[in-house]
């Protein structure tokens, strides 16, 4: 079943699984510390991980389809990701 998966797909999936695992560990850490101030600090550190995972996952995907998509379209995709990050940061 997994023998026909592209390397880009495997990389993207592993990165998302790592990201999800970090989120679950943070939630468990919330329960362990049982302190709102410390939980907010943990939550704030997660805000750094999300955009990094988004950018790296998108980059891996674009590398995987580089021969199928024109350079101009790849620039549009990166601009879109940049706008998403800007919109999240501005709110």
Task: Give a structural overview.
The chain crosses the membrane at residues 12-33, 45-65, 71-88. This is DUF2619 domain-containing protein. InterPro entries: Uncharacterised_YqhV (IPR020390). With 91 residues, the protein is mainly α. The chain has one domain (7-89). The protein has three helices and no strands. The radius of gyration is 17 Å and the shape is flat. The chain starts with 6 loop residues before the first helix and ends with a helix. The relative contact order is 0.12.
Q: Give the proportion of residues in helices.
A: over 70%
Number of self-contained structural domains: 1
Mean pLDDT: 88
Q: Major sheet: size, sense and barrel closure?
A: none
Coarse shape:
flat
Helix count equals: 3
Secondary structure class reads: mainly alpha
Distance between the termini: 42 Å
Taking all Cα atoms into account, the compactness measure Rg is 17 Å
Beta strand count: 0
Query: SSE string, helix = H, strand = E?
Result: HHH
Organism: Robertmurraya kyonggiensis
Keywords: Membrane, Transmembrane, Transmembrane helix
Protein name: DUF2619 domain-containing protein
Transmembrane segments: 12-33, 45-65, 71-88
Q: Which short descriptors sum up this protein?
A:
flat, mainly alpha, about 90 residues, about 0% strand, 3 helices, Uncharacterised_YqhV, single chain
Secondary-structure blueprint of this entry?
Blueprint: H1 7-33, H2 36-64, H3 71-90
Helix pairs in contact: 1-2, 2-3
Summarize the structure.
This protein has 91 residues and is mainly alpha-helical.
């Amino acid at each position: 079943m997994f023998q026909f998966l592209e390397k880009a797909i495997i990389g993207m999936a592993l990165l998302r699984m790592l990201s999800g695992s970090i989120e679950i560990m943070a939630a468990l850490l919330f329960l362990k510390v049982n302190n709102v101030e410390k939980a907010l600090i943990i939550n704030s550190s997660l805000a750094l991980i999300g955009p990094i995972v988004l950018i790296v996952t998108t980059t891996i995907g674009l590398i995987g389809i580089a021969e199928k998509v024109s350079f101009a379209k790849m620039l549009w995709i990166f601009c879109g990701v940049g706008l998403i990050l800007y919109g999240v940061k501005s709110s």
